[in-house]
UniProtKB/TrEMBL annotation:
Keywords from the UniProt entry: Isomerase, Magnesium, Metal-binding, Phosphoprotein
EC assignment: 5.4.2.8
Pfam families: PGM_PMM_I
One annotated GO molecular function: phosphomannomutase activity
Family membership: Belongs to the phosphohexose mutase family.
Domain of life of the source: Bacteria
Signal peptide: none
Gene Ontology terms describing biological process: carbohydrate metabolic process
Pathway linked to the protein: Nucleotide-sugar biosynthesis; GDP-alpha-D-mannose biosynthesis; alpha-D-mannose 1-phosphate from D-fructose 6-phosphate: step 2/2
Catalyzed reactions: alpha-D-mannose 1-phosphate = D-mannose 6-phosphate
Entry-linked PANTHER family: PHOSPHOMANNOMUTASE
Entry-linked InterPro entries: A-D-PHexomutase_a/b/a-I, A-D-PHexomutase_a/b/a-I/II/III, A-D-PHexomutase_CS, Alpha-D-phosphohexomutase_SF
UniProt protein name: Phosphomannomutase
Length: 166
């Protein structure tokens, strides 16, 4: 059995989205294929921040969510943050070690094409922006000067969408 070293306690955050890293899209699509092979219906929300995966998982009432990202690590790294139903984080104590054991065992059944899951790209950006703006009274914000640094991250388009509604 191969001992995997990619399972760290901080990989606990996480339907399917990816950040702006050059490798995120390819990794996300490979992940989607593996999930489909296992019979999972995959909803891809596109480029997103981890907070959008939390929202999408809860908003859609799905079984879990995965954000392809290495978060604060250097750009040549990549990984995944996982959440379960209700947008609850998956940690070493709540399922991540089980995933590690399954991956290390490598005992995967053959793909059953008849039971293969679907893949669909969706957009929840408007619902997400509405959710965020639901916490404030926009009328109380004027006049408003907005200064934002999204840190070269996936939050940039969200900030643009919020600004358009203010």
């Amino acid at each position: 059995m191969t001992k995997l070293t990619c399972f760290k306690a901080y990989d606990i955050r996480g339907r399917l989205g990816g950040d702006v890293r050059l490798t995120s899209e390819a990794l996300k699509l490979a992940l989607a294929k593996g999930l489909q092979d296992a019979g999972v219906d995959v909803l891809d929300i596109g480029m997103s921040g981890t907070e959008e995966i939390y929202f999408a998982t809860f908003h859609l009432g799905v079984d879990g969510g995965i954000e392809v990202t290495a978060s604060h690590n250097p750009m040549d790294y990549n990984g995944m943050k996982l959440v379960r139903e209700g947008a609850r984080p998956i940690s070493g104590d709540t399922g991540l070690r089980d995933v590690q054991r399954l991956a290390e065992a490598g005992d995967f059944p053959p793909v059953n094409e008849a039971a293969r899951g679907s893949y669909r790209q969706i957009s929840l950006r408007d619902a997400y922006i509405g959710h965020l703006l639901g916490y404030i009274s926009v009328n109380n914000l004027t006049p408003l000067k907005l200064v934002v640094n999204s840190g070269n991250g996936a939050a940039g388009p969200v900030i643009d969408a919020i600004e358009a509604r203010l």
